[in-house]
Amino acid sequence: MSAPSTTPRSAVANSVWPRLEPLLPQIAKPIQYVGGELGAVVKDWDTAAVRWALMYPDAYEVGLPNQGVQILYEVLNEQPDVLAERTYAVWPDLERLMRAHQVPQFTIDAHRPVRDFDVFGVSFATELGYTNLLTAIDLAGIPLLAADRSDADPVVVAGGHAAFNPEPIAAFVDAAVLGDGEEAVLEITTIVREWKAEGSPGGRDELLLRLARTESVYVPRFYDVDYLPDGRIQRVVPNRPDVPFRVHKRTTMDLDAWPYPKKPLVPLAETVHERYAVEIFRGCTRGCRFCQAGMITRPVRERSITTVGQMVREGLEFSGFHEVGLLSLSSADHSEIGDMCSGLAQQYEGTNVSLSLPSTRVDAFNIDLAQELARNGRRTGLTFAPEGGSERIRKVINKMVSKEDLIRTVVTAYTNGWRQVKLYFMCGLPTETDEDVLEIAAMAHEVIRAGRAATGSRDIRCTVSIGGFVPKPHTPFQWAAMARPEVIDNRLRLLKQAVNADRSLGRAIGFRYHDGEPSLIEGLLSRGDRRVSAVIRRVWENGGRFDGWSEHFSYQRWVEAAAEVLPDFGVDLDWYTTRERDELEVLPWDHLDSGLDKDWLWQDWQDALGEYEQEDCRWTPCFDCGVCPAMDTEIQIGPTGRKLLPLTPVNGLRVPSDAQQ
Ligand code: SF4
């Protein structure tokens, strides 16, 4: 464990490589700690005015492809006087050796100690990375608790979707940034640069105060939380006069002005995605009530077809990747997705470049899109996400897709040569019954039956993949009770039996699911308050690492830690997870402004219980969710009417004809 330290940061940031290298033959996958990938940047330490260490708190193979970190890494390194390096969670085998040999948490770019940087930025896609944050802070030699840090320690800043409720990690981070990061990191950099140039007046406290005054950086130490006798929060208020009552999210409005990544990182070791990924739009107003990403990233902002085309061309040229991922929360909803796919397919026809859409809405997928995605003969995986098995539950979650839509869509894929599709559902949704879940089996049977009839082949398969529902902050389901793990597990057991009840159809259906226990812990962390930090710390002290990995996750460890520390506060694990909140309860994140109006969210929750659907404001009048007026933003969608031009052969090379103009 680290003790409070006031040892000054090293002015030279000596590389730990000489001490790390002899350890590498003793561990699995040493290549992941070596750095030097195509796209990696190493800058001069001494001439940098501001130095960032950026972390994705998971293993290299998951962390390297993360778009958020790649974008911020490039945006920061483009600044002449700014240096940014990356660090990832080290596996327990290396952690043991690092502790034994006193090797601190290091960046993989120049193997510099993380503690020597000015800012340590950590991007959380999931709350299950919290214990890895503690490992990294502790290995770095930074005091675990923000309150114990000195001017010699970096400012630890959390970002990413989980930062929209950073209260469970408020004890461990100095600040959290809500929303889009591109402009936020530059603003933070400016504040740090000026503060350092002035001779660091007022020390760490003054720097944090300057960050808090931007109104988009949340500094937990400047807010006090009062509790009611029954454990609920009474209020969260600033404890000094010059910080805002509410902290607002950042929204990057013009995606064309931020065409990153331009130089994507090409991994040395195997990673979960090896492709050039371009975000084709940000935000989603489909209004799926469980979807935190859709709610907190509103409004929809499209990247134009021409910027996407240029990014793909330059990204592929730089990286040599053979797959292009057109990313967003619902890629087939881009107003020019058809032209984009056909333009790219045409440009790369005859090459080994393939296109993929990560997850496709059932109602937005059509035959043209299917043909464009398959044009070069390669068919990357297709995933459709009806999310709910019955029409009734799909109304509750506002996933407006019918069984007929799904069957028609999947048959389109089968008849266009796909032999395998994946269908994603959730279990444990509000108001859900066994019958709602059992309808997933009927749907999967129907998919196989219709697919066989349409193709005349028995060689088709579908995989039913089931995730546990976790209510998230800033969504209409933020008030909902979670189902107990035993209820989820029983429903999944019944579903598996129902899928296999027809042997002929069941053989063509794969079944993947997680049991309900990790979801319950994710629920504790996602809707937790500051008292939950004691649970996280206890779990970590008891060996908790890589909680997002089933082979490392221990439900028992979390349950025991919660039972040990929460009773002191008069609450327990159930209180945080299986308890429904009422309208007037102060939620731990109410002082963090995602732009969504709380009254609108409550009304949408009531509509969910009444099984009423909500339209998409891209195509219907605004329904006053609050985001656009609160954030001074607006929906930005096309079509632009422009097309991607085909490639023209020049001297045996194929270059885009628009590049020659
Ligand atoms: S404020 Fe209106 S237009 Fe903007 S995201 Fe909300 S519903 Fe859509």
What does this structure look like?
The protein is α/β, with parallel strands linked by helices. Helix 5 (130-140) links the parallel strand 3 and strand 4. The model is unreliable at 1-6 and 647-661 (pLDDT under 50). Strands 2-1-3-4-5-6 form a 6-stranded mixed β-sheet. The chain has a 4-stranded parallel β-sheet with strand order 15-16-17-18. Among the domains are: 17-242, 3-Layer(aba) Sandwich (Rossmann fold), CATH 3.40.50; 275-380 and 592-652, Transcription Regulator spoIIAA (2-Layer Sandwich), CATH 3.30.750.210. The site of iron/sulfur cluster (SF4) has 12 residues, from helix 22.
Key traits:
33% helix; disordered N terminus; alpha/beta; Transcription Regulator spoIIAA; 21 strands; binds iron/sulfur cluster; 661 residues; Rossmann fold; six-stranded mixed sheet; four-stranded parallel sheet; disordered C terminus; 22 helices
Q: Give the class-level CATH name of one domain.
A: Alpha Beta
N- and C-termini, Cα separation: 61 Å
Q: Which ligands are bound? A: iron/sulfur cluster
State the fourth-level CATH superfamily of one domain: Cobalamin-binding domain
| Oligomeric status | single chain
Main sheet attributes: strand count, strand direction, barrel closure? 6 strands, mixed
Give the C-alpha Rg: 25 Å
How many β-strand stretches? 21
Helix count equals: 22
Question: What is the element layout, followed by pairings?
Answer:
Elements: H1 17-20, E1 50-56, H2 60-63, H3 67-77, E2 82-88, H4 92-100, E3 119-123, H5 130-140, E4 155-159, E5 175-177, H6 182-197, H7 203-212, E6 217-218, E7 223-227, E8 233-238, E9 247-248, E10 276-279, E11 281-282, H8 292-296, E12 301-302, H9 305-319, E13 323-327, H10 337-347, E14 354-356, H11 367-373, E15 382-387, H12 391-396, H13 403-415, E16 420-427, H14 434-455, E17 461-468, H15 485-500, H16 503-506, E18 509-513, H17 516-526, H18 533-541, H19 555-565, H20 573-577, E19 592-593, H21 598-609, H22 627-631, E20 647-650, E21 653-656
Parallel strand pairs: 1-2, 1-3, 3-4, 4-5, 9-19, 10-13, 13-14, 15-16, 16-17, 17-18
Antiparallel strand pairs: 5-6, 7-8, 11-12, 20-21
Helix pairs in contact: 5-18, 10-11, 13-14, 14-15, 15-17, 18-19
Bound molecules: iron/sulfur cluster.
Iron/sulfur cluster is lined by residues 285, 298-299, 617, 622-628, 635.
